[in-house]
Write a structure and sequence with these properties.
Oligomer: single chain
Number of helices: 18
Radius of gyration: 21 Å
CATH topology: Growth Hormone, Chain: A
Number of domains: 1
Order of helices and strands: HHHHHHHHHHHHHHHHHH
Distance between the termini: 31 Å
Length: 328
């Protein structure tokens, strides 16, 4: 639940001090928290402080992650020239998939170590790499100009003090749509990255490295192919950016998306419960996946088309009453 909290907290910063400045802060929080996990002392060395520190670092990761995607997508969408918003902002999603492939590939290499080495020191190796990634991310973000949309808000003194309040007051419907729109893809990713790995190793008897290789291949397909899952997530950044006005875009985007992620985060546990209820037969899990897709389908269907929305507007064009009645 710390990702939605991060979306609200850092979304407020992004709507008050700027998208670029907030992304620099979240880069440091996310990168340092991740890197320090690999350097944590063991329970034998510091006792109960080991799991406490791990929990705190995981909270830091969640807070940072909750604002990263929304901020990066907002910055890209607001920099995009007319008619290119979907293309420009899709690079945020491409970055997510590349990161997932690189992360899984790193752990795939760790599985090549002997089991004892994996359990003692091998698992630590991927985490400190995050410190190097901080440098790469800061190098890029420090060279990106602040969003022209936010600079205009500052110039016109339109920066809002409590963006979450304005989000709920002016865009309650779009906030709910944003939550539902992120259910399907998050459920699928969590199922592939966690439940499928456990099911394939424990139920099917496959080796860890074989299953992780499959996860890597799945990520590469998402990046490279233009069908199925890939186009659904590619247009998502522009879709969310068009749901909210410029004054509260970062907050509305990040908080609604991450609330959807929090809800869908229970999908591996639900899948495990369904598997147990059917004595190991998995056929209920595809039905559950279809149900999550139905939720997101309804959210997309109820959303107004945003391709012609003025991204710099304080209040973007909303669905007309006629369109709402037609879809109701």
């Amino acid at each position: 639940m710390f990702r939605p909290l991060g979306g609200i907290l850092f979304g407020r910063l992004g709507d008050r001090i700027g998208r670029r400045s907030t992304l620099i802060i979240t880069t440091l929080i996310m990168g340092v928290s991740t890197g320090l996990i690999g350097l944590l002392p063991t329970y034998a060395a510091i006792g109960v402080w080991a799991p406490i520190l791990l929990a705190l670092l995981r909270i830091g990761q969640g807070l940072g992650a909750g604002a990263e995607f929304g901020g990066a997508s907002t910055l890209l969408a607001e920099h995009a020239p007319p008619g290119r918003r979907g293309y420009y902002s899709s690079f945020a999603q491409t970055g997510v998939q590349i990161g997932r492939v690189l992360g899984t590939s790193t752990f795939l290499l760790v599985t090549l170590l002997p089991l004892e080495a994996q359990q003692t020191w091998g698992w630590r190796v991927p985490f400190p790499i995050s410190f190097a990634m901080i440098g790469v991310a800061l190098y890029v973000r420090l060279r990106v100009a602040e969003s022209p949309v936010f600079r205009r808000l500052e110039r016109d003194k339109q920066v809002v003090r409590m963006p979450i309040r304005e989000t709920l007051a002016k865009y309650p419907r779009n906030a709910v749509i944003g939550i539902g729109a992120h259910i399907a893809d998050t459920a699928l990713i969590y199922l592939v990255a966690t439940f499928v790995v456990a099911y394939a190793t424990e139920q099917l008897g496959l080796e860890d490295r074989t299953v992780l290789l499959g996860v890597v291949i799945f990520g590469l397909v998402v990046i490279a192919m233009a069908f199925g899952f890939a186009p659904m997530v590619a247009v998502r950044p522009a879709f969310y950016a068009e749901l909210f006005g410029a004054r509260v875009r970062y907050t509305g985007f990040a908080s609604s998306r991450e609330l959807g992620a929090a809800v869908a985060g229970f999908s591996p546990m639900i899948a495990a419960a369904l598997l147990g209820a059917m004595d190991g037969e998995p056929w209920l899990i595809p039905l559950f996946t279809i149900a999550t897709c139905a939720v997101s389908f309804v959210a997309f269907w109820l959303a107004a088309e945003g391709k012609d929305v003025d991204i710099a507007a304080v209040d973007p064009t909303q669905e007309t009453q006629a369109t709402q009645e037609e879809r109701a």
